[in-house]
Amino acid sequence: MTNSIWEPRSSAPWLSSSRLPPLTGAPIAFSFAENLAVRGVKMDAAAFLRERRVVLERRLRGRDLRRVTVHELFHFVWWRLGNPARASWEALLAAERSRGEAGWSAEWRKSALTEADRRNRTRRWREYVCEAFCDAAAAIYASPAQNTLAPRFLAKREKWFAATLGGRALSI
Q1: CA distance 137 to 20
Q2: CB-based contact 11:4 (threshold 8 Å)
Q3: Could you give the CA distance from residue 23 to residue 168 in angstroms, rounded to a whole number?
Q4: Distance in angstroms between the alpha carbons of the first and the last residue of the chain
Q5: Domain ranges of the chain
Q6: Is the pTM of this model over 0.90?
Q7: Helical residues (DSSP H) of the chain, grouped into ranges
Q8: What residues form DSSP beta bridges with 171?
């Protein structure tokens, strides 16, 4: 594993117009597949963290390809983020009580949550928290194309990203 700055645009040139912060760590491999499904569920992409690779649906183009790629890259950031930052993000979401989400991945998970999920920090809640982080990153750094979150809540999330992650390379 290297600690040098990794430039994702060298492996994923479609990210050239994204506003990604510097990323540090070993490179991540990208590949494409048609009719991508994991465990029988169709999806736009899948991140395999331990294998350091991302598989993207071949039909993705333009801003959708950038948004989905950034979302998947931020699964690697989440994995290495550290418990204090993850807890801070979780507290932000718990206090929000908003409708909508920064992307579909978090939105469908959010719609399935119960008050008991939030209170007991169930797996369903924790998966939502992670997906909300990755969708927010995609909306901030690539494209808010799937955003249904009220602007004031997206602004709070963007402020959290700047305060917590800004000004440094992010470990992947």
Answers
A1: 9
A2: no
A3: 9
A4: 10
A5: 5-171
A6: yes
A7: 8-11, 62-80, 83-96, 104-111, 115-120, 123-141, 151-165
A8: 24
Residue-wise pLDDT tens for the chain (172 aa)? 444 556 766 778 888 777 889 899 999 999 999 999 888 888 999 999 999 999 999 999 999 999 999 999 999 999 999 999 999 999 999 999 899 999 999 999 999 999 999 999 999 999 999 999 999 999 999 988 889 999 999 999 999 999 999 888 999 9
CB contact burial 90-120 (16+ within 10 A = b; e otherwise): bebbeeeebeebbbbbbbebbeeeeeebbee
Answer for the pair 97, 82: CB distance below 8 angstroms, yes or no: no
| 3 contact partners, CB below 8 Å, separation of at least 6 | 24, 25
Which amino acid, 112?
A
CA angle 22, 108, 102 (to 5 degrees): 35
Beta bridge partners of 48: 53
